[in-house]
Specification:
Helices cover about 75% and strands about 0% of the residues. Helix 3 runs antiparallel to helix 4.
Length: about 90
């Protein structure tokens, strides 16, 4: 999805791309909640993955394009916290 998100960034505005990604995620969420069989659940998860696959690179693109240079490190750190798994590094 990352190469596709680059294409979408050039073709559409940031706001339109982000809204479409969020709508895909929410549609997948609702479809997964209402899934009655595995194929329906799989389609829902694919929709969620497509929305997230567009939204995450788009988030970093928005941070890099819209934020002031003096706050760039802080905002990239916050963006990385969104992507980081909280259970990494924990002993089991």
């Amino acid at each position: 999805m990352t190469p596709l998100s680059s294409y979408l960034n050039h073709r559409f505005t940031l706001k339109t791309s982000f809204i479409a990604a969020v709508v895909l995620c929410i549609a997948g969420l609702l479809l997964a909640a209402l899934a009655v069989n595995f194929p329906m659940l799989m389609i829902a998860r694919i929709l969620q993955g497509a929305g997230t696959g567009v939204a995450l690179p788009l988030m970093f693109n928005i941070i890099l394009e819209q934020s002031p240079r003096s706050r760039l490190g802080l905002l990239m750190g916050v963006g990385n916290m969104v992507c980081a798994r909280p259970d990494r590094g924990r002993c089991r």
